[in-house]
What we know:
Pfam families: 2-Hacid_dh, ACT_AHAS_ss, HAD. Its EC number is 1.1.1.399, 3.1.3.3. By secondary structure, the protein is an alpha/beta fold. It contains 18 helices and 17 strands. The chain has helices spanning 11-15, 20-28, 35-50, 56-67, 71-82, 87-90, 93-98, 111-118, 155-163, 176-183, 200-203, 213-219, 243-251, 283-288, 307-313, 330-341, 374-384, 414-420; strands at residues 5-9, 103-110, 128-131, 133-135, 141-144, 168-173, 189-193, 208-210, 234-238, 255-259, 270-275, 294-297, 316-319, 362-369, 389-396, 400-407, 425-430. It has a 6-stranded parallel beta sheet. Strands 10-9-11-12-13 form a 5-stranded parallel beta sheet, sandwiched between helices. Helix 2 (20-28) runs antiparallel to helix 3, helix 2 (20-28) crosses helix 5 (71-82) and helix 5 packs parallel to helix 8 (111-118). The chain is globular, with a radius of gyration of 25 Å. The relative contact order is 0.08.
Amino acid sequence: MKQQNFYIIxxxxxxxxxxxxxxxxxxxxxxxxxxxxxxxxxxDYTNLxxxxxxxxxxxxxxxxxxxxxxxxxxxxxxxxxxxxVSKSFSRNADFFKKHADEVLIVSGGxxxxxxxxxxxxxxxxENIYANTFVTTGDGKIIDYDHANxxxxxxxxxxxxxxxxxxxxxxxxxxxxxxxxxxxxxxxxKFYAFTENIARESIVTKADHVTPSFDEFLYVNNLPRxxxxxxxxILCLVIGDVPADTINFLKKDGFSxxxxxxxxxxYVADVGMLILxxxxxxxxxxxxxxxxxxxxxxxxxxxxxxxxxxxxxxxxVVFDDAKANPRNSLFIPKxxxxxxxxxxxxxxxxxxxLQLPAIDKSHRLIHIHKNVPGIMAxxxxxxxxxxxxxxxxxxxxxxxxxxxxxxxxxxxxxxxFKSLKKIEHTIKFRVLY
Length: 432
């Protein structure tokens, strides 16, 4: 019989983008004359505990004491946290629905604000383990339940020992208390979650660093919203490129390398290129960049790279021919839209196609030479594999055919091999 898996997920700075007690302080102390100094104290206590430099119990006691919060503040916090769920968790809601019995939220935070947030994602209330506040009759928070093991140093370890789950346990979190589960031997692997914050003292101890929940699902071959995590796509930035351009793509989740030239060691693996105005790409290197999907040129790309080679290899090129300084995000937005949705709008070499994102489907991109009969062959393959087509788009120019097909979530993996074998195919990929 197959061993059951359990996924032990932290809440603060993991399931959500923020530390909830820090956010609660900003709400409850908004009118306090010394609020900035108190905010800083609370954040310091949080970070010291997360980095293993202060016992969790001491950190928690000090933070709750400083809050001066009540039920009304809690309701405002819950509303705020619902908007601050980490993007990669939010887009994988279906995973939580399908694996509701296997997902546990284990946090040093508080059920009063955790339960309303994670329950939206089909996580069972009985699988939420956290602290609880002690309040007065009028709703003022004055303390917490000290009998709860999660309020103590090493609390997650004590709780998991009590639960004694039978199966393989995987822990996902950003702090020292999450690593302690691995250190204790209670979990099989610890994944340091770095989408929101990367704590060097924790990252160096992790079995695997996961910049997104997509990455965790990918390495464990679990169902996910995105077929290939963006953090695995190498985006090479070359030359004098504005910081805003780089930060935009980094925030979107791509793996960024900023270099002064197109170094040989990156040629085989680069998936995206951003080039500063004036930079050139040698034709020989371009031909060998087999994983390259798109190029963003911060200026006029004419005579700086071969559009003919890009067409032959199915590489979508965006440039800013007028080098308009008004917006350093013009090119990165175009490139990101292509990588995320398949949109080629304002490309200088591909048919221009604007695409909506469609939920609960997989988007397949088929780039081919513009010859008659390709779409008929594509749809014949879909029919043979009993594929339900949700939406389909085709645009052509004189040389290229660009076909986008959205299909339902159920498909045979052999389908991809068949699509790649169609004569005159230039490039095929699953977008999400």
